[in-house]
Please model this.
Amino acid sequence: MATMKLAEAINQTIVLEMERDPDVLVLGIDNCAGGVLGVTGGLKDRFGENRVLDTPISEGGYLGAAVGAAAVGCRPVVELMFVDFIGVCMDQLFNQAAKMRYMFGGKVKIPLVLRAATGGGVGAAAQHSQSLEAWFMHIPGLKVVYPSTPYDAKGLLASAIQDDNPVVFLENKALYASEGEVPTEAYTIPIGKADIKREGSDVTVVATGQMVGKALMVAEKMASDGVSVEVLDPRSLLPLDEEAILTSVKKTQRLVIVHEEVAFAGSGAEIAAMVAEKAFDYLDAPIKRVAAPFCPVPFAAGLEAEYIPSENRIVEAIKAILE
Amino acid sequence: MATMKLAEAINQTIVLEMERDPDVLVLGIDNCAGGVLGVTGGLKDRFGENRVLDTPISEGGYLGAAVGAAAVGCRPVVELMFVDFIGVCMDQLFNQAAKMRYMFGGKVKIPLVLRAATGGGVGAAAQHSQSLEAWFMHIPGLKVVYPSTPYDAKGLLASAIQDDNPVVFLENKALYASEGEVPTEAYTIPIGKADIKREGSDVTVVATGQMVGKALMVAEKMASDGVSVEVLDPRSLLPLDEEAILTSVKKTQRLVIVHEEVAFAGSGAEIAAMVAEKAFDYLDAPIKRVAAPFCPVPFAAGLEAEYIPSENRIVEAIKAILE
Amino acid sequence: MNLSNEEKVGMFATMLRIRKFEEKLEELVLTGNISGFVHLYIGEEAVATGVCSALKISDYITSTHRGHGHLIAKGGKTDLMMAELFAKKTGYCKGKGGSMHIADLELGILGANGIVGAGPPIAVGAGLASKYKGNDNVSVSFFGDGASNQGTVHEALNLASIWKLPVIFVIENNCFAEFTHQADHQCCRLVSERAEGYRIPSVVVDGNDVLAVYEATQEAVKSAREGKGPTMIECNTYRIKGHYVGDPETYRSEEERASWQSADKDPILRFEKRLLDEDIADQNTLDSIRQEIQDEIEKAVEYAKESPAPDISELMKDVYA
Amino acid sequence: MNLSNEEKVGMFATMLRIRKFEEKLEELVLTGNISGFVHLYIGEEAVATGVCSALKISDYITSTHRGHGHLIAKGGKTDLMMAELFAKKTGYCKGKGGSMHIADLELGILGANGIVGAGPPIAVGAGLASKYKGNDNVSVSFFGDGASNQGTVHEALNLASIWKLPVIFVIENNCFAEFTHQADHQCCRLVSERAEGYRIPSVVVDGNDVLAVYEATQEAVKSAREGKGPTMIECNTYRIKGHYVGDPETYRSEEERASWQSADKDPILRFEKRLLDEDIADQNTLDSIRQEIQDEIEKAVEYAKESPAPDISELMKDVYA
Ligand SMILES: Cc1ncc(C[n+]2csc(CCOP(=O)(O)OP(=O)(O)O)c2C)c(N)n1
Ligand SMILES: Cc1ncc(C[n+]2csc(CCOP(=O)(O)OP(=O)(O)O)c2C)c(N)n1
Ligand SMILES: [Mg+2]
Ligand SMILES: [Mg+2]
Model:
């Protein structure tokens, strides 16, 4: 075990996977110099420019190249930098990577990981702060992973790289510097398994990314008021561990969903809809979503603090359905 | 009044708006020759090549050009051809058109309509048959319109062109040739107003696009079994007429949502989640979604018929929650 | 050029196979036997044939929406293709893909593609893999004059160039992008005038002369295998049929089209004459090839017709590996 | 060139205004007064200044992530800019946009942009509107060497070319895209080598010579206003500061950087010397301009600091018109 930051855990996992499997390649803008996100440092020195490639600013081109390389036997790990840049290369993700296997009648595998920094809180404004999980969840053929701790990040990224399908791996910017205990050796965490970050009996809070930490703080605080909050981190949104969510909701009979993207047509909508269909009879109260309001991410710190779901708003939502 | 096809109603509306407002421009691939969708016929002859522009295959470029033209006072009506092509130009829609006003502190308007053919049923396979409403709904700053009849198409497209915001206007391929009564003069239908296509008291069916017609057939059939089905067509998904949906659900206490896109993280998820929060106490049964299964659109007619939600599946869903 | 007479006759057969396949297909679409969007390669056979004749099986190609010619030239089986177009379980994609998505990874065919401009980056990626793995496979990306205006094509050219990848960009300049003349969608007379901006060597060939295409490709392949990086080959040709089967073709004159079907322009008539003139083959041989191909296509149709449609249980399969 | 002495001195002042604004900004970021991503224009002042000096107020520009210089040169107010960078209600965007999204439609500034390559299509659209409306406004799109590899830039060039639009593409070749040298992200020595492929006339200028930039732009503007279509101007310059404030700059040597700050390379030092050598202005005049600008920037900072932050009620405003 070692204490390390989420960014370090990701870096270490890439190193381990590159050592394990010579087919793993790394592509992205400025990765050789460590990347603007500061995640790919040291890779070039260790593995050389043939395996760690700097890409020109042409996301559609290099994501497409990763798709082609994956189709013929490589395992590219691609850095998109900010998830907001997906708009210039979405085609290669959703029409090519995710659909090729199906369209070709099962005759190809596209083992590819697309890493992207997600979320706000760093004053980066509307085009560098978005959360777009829901878009990726809507793409059959894709997997979507979103860890909230260094430990989960390491195990899930290893699984993502070893997976034979295209995987979008979301990294919450506000969590890059967050620390946690991480085993030094290699390990995997299966994609599609939720994790109960805290057990509770009165209400289930499903949270992702940096919202997990906030939900845990809320759970801690509310415990002293006698409210027992269960915090469930799906860890992957596609596939979604419906069973774990349903089991929890059947126990607590109340559900609050917390995420950083806008509420409308966001990832929480799917979770709420799924529960409203499959655990309706267990529900004792309306399903609440705590998420961003329906506007772009503002620059001003005060506005952004209001934009990103706060512990207060989580508390209010829980209280509203406990009454 | 005249009987006309949906494609004709759209063409006529573009003509009327171009006559009314000299700022309206038309851009798209092969629009001068009437377009592959067959919707823009006659426009070039009537308005000339300065107002009806053929674009090279470069969606990001010409959608971006429309954004720029809109920012300085034009009202471009852009044809994307198939909605599936959005992956190469999403950036100009979601990071530019939809966010500019907010990012600039309210100092710009982007009156732009992006028309796109949506949906399956014509054997066009995975990259020419998708429905992607949910993606567009998730974009603050955008409006999303999806008519199901020639009458609605005409009134809504006129509103979309006159709107000062970017509007995605979805045209269901299977409906292009469907006919309906349409007034010959110009009129508008407000964006954001749902339409009850049939009143009923036992269950609310919210349906979009070609699913509206299927829901109406089902309602007709089930009426003879004594089941009274209310069919609500939101007509625009963003803004969504939440009030109309809630009013209907509060009356019927049962909700089935039917749409052509995949269920997972689809537009129905938002509708279900909204109702599960705001009308929970009125609901007598789980909320059901009838939508496409989680796979790309298959080519084979038999598979595609199974893929697209059928009347049978709607009936089953209704029966399941009436028990 | 180092082609034996046999090989030349083989190329003739390939072109003819494409032509006959497409002619049959057109008939099948017009008679309602096959549905979906179908884009025919008639008139452009020399391009795919000339290019693929210079490739090994392990070399890669990416194709387009107009892909049947590329597939057949790279060794694709006409019966499996026809079965796919009939949406049958025995087809290349089990009936799930259709015309625009046929692939055969074992033949290095990385797929037709319904998105214009999506293929070139994928070919670049296959080239990257070849370079990284140290094998000598080259990647060929076929794309049209219309596609050359798509941003991804520009990006792919730049990537292949800076990484010096074994990629050959084959431009099929067939005078049209859908209903739009090439001169109306770009100002350069030739797409390949853009190559120099990426420092990619380029060559322009008569795309209706199969041997010229072959020769240019052979050079490009040699250069790619030697690690000298990408080449662009622009093939001037003409799309004889409409953009898709059913295209009303309001945008061009009958004369223009007919002029490309003359004996001195049609790629197959031209090559046939040459084979005869140069005594590479006699009429009997060519006629019997014609007959064989006719039979092959008929059999392919029969095979397709008799094959079962995919079972409904197939719907949710092959989404994930 | 038809510049009066006064106009030349005005250009000097503009360059200095940019420099001082950026130097102050760097200090404010490093001291934690301003947050977010901030990309400085130091060293490239002659480009924005030379270009915008040849424009009317009603002409349009699209800018980039490195936009402050373009804005100031096009007439943007330093106090409103500073207030925006301080995220204040009085800022250009009410504090909602920040460095990468400043716009002033009244000055024809269609916005900085956080997405590399997104500006050129937007400039093309403004040019399309000018042509359609029959006014003589031109559009200028500033973009970098790095951006030139983005597909949308290629698409914008092609559109401007086929539609013969009044658009000027100004390439700021500052030797870097983030941490990557230009030579490592493209094989062409100059971005403008690609212009011919679109039949767009191009010119390469010393981007640190404000008069050379002005002259080239004036020509391009004239041609655009006369309906002769787009021009590409490549300005060779150098990014003196890191990619963003805080960049560790591990990828270049101190010597390389310093060489661009010498008296014969720095655009402001060079122009100052010229003004003096050619007796266009005396040292006193220039010094007092320096002082005025210093004061202006200080006042801008004061204004920004004293301005209120946007009220929380602003959060949901300006989403829709
Ligand atoms: C991204 C995208 N835009 C538009 C289309 C529609 N489309 C299909 S083929 C085609 C024309 C392609 O022209 P070209 O590249 O010259 O190939 P050709 O058809 O001539 O073989 C167009 C516009 C598409 N499939 N994908
Ligand atoms: C689509 C997109 N990809 C990547 C980035 C990250 N990024 C911001 S600036 C930059 C480099 C731009 O280089 P250049 O165009 O030369 O402009 P310069 O910074 O040198 O002024 C990059 C890669 C981005 N903002 N948008
Ligand atoms: Mg063509
Ligand atoms: Mg640069």
Observations:
- Chain B has a mean pLDDT of 97.
- The pocket of thiamine diphosphate (ligand 2) is lined by residues A 29, 57, 59, 81, 85, 88; D 65-66, 114-117, 143-147, 172, 174, 176-178, 239, 243 (CB under 6 Å).
